[in-house]
Amino acid sequence: xxxxxxxxxxxxxxxxxxxxxxxxxxxxxxxxxxxxxxxxxxxxxxxxxxxxxxxxxxxxxxxxxxxxxxxxxxxxxxxxxxxxxxxxxxxxxxxxxxxxxxxxxxxxxxxxxxxxxxxxxxxxxxxxxxxxxxxxxxxxxxxxxxxxxxxxxxxxxxxxxxxxxxxxxxxxxxxxxxxxxxxxxxxxxxxxxxxxxxxxxxxxxxxxxxxxxxxxxxxxxxxxxxxxxxxxxxxxxxxxxxxxxxxxxxxxxxxxxxxxxxxxxxxxxxxxxxxxxxxxxxxxxxxxxxxxxxxxxxxxxxxxxxxxxx
Length: 310
Description:
With 310 residues, the chain is an all-alpha fold. The chain has 2 domains: 1-207, no CATH class; 211-310, no CATH class. The chain is 80% helix and 0% strand. The protein has helices at residues 8-30, 32-38, 43-53, 55-73, 78-98, 103-128, 133-154, 159-198, 218-228, 234-265, 270-282, 284-300, 305-309. The radius of gyration is 21 Å and the shape is globular.
């Protein structure tokens, strides 16, 4: 069992990891627009030093960073809990990578594990605040909608359009939140994979991410939730559209895997990869095309994976 108190030679790395997390906090508070992208990398320092130093040292970095965050935010808030969840993500990912889990298991364990722990922590916080989880969530969403409505008004958007935008946001908020978090997890896996490869460490179970393929049975889930959207029942449609959003992200990952597979096969130059991925990031039509590519890959088998295995 690793020592709970780290060796003096590891203290420097623990301090460095904590400082990197604090730097990301500072950027997110000082430059909100830039902070949105900086937060995507928040699990990375915890993940890297968790793999380098072990579970105990990684936990110390996450805990110390969270305590500093509490001081910076002057108490616990909804955003504070979310930042804490991102720190915890680094620990969960480190555990999965150390156990050599496949990408599917790593994603599921990290996403569901962190969401479960975060929900439990939120419940405990709500209990000590003598308020229900639903009440606190509605209060936070109400503040967010008031903020966005004021921003839209300053942009000259009419109130009817603002109400429509807010209604649409409320409809897809759970699905978009999970999609955002899953994208963060996937991005950190890609980055840590490259960082470890530079120092000669290869993650065998994640070497062929461009061969990722969703289970064939998932197609029926997409069809089923799509049918729910046609039913004239509000709660059913609400569940259907949010589950569908999450499933479409999975097929987006598969579509990106198909594109990456052919980039590697054709040994495409870096500038071409950057250009294509940039188009996908900024153009909704290319994004939809990639999702469709991943969805129909289940039937057309663009990469001919089964043939190559034989």
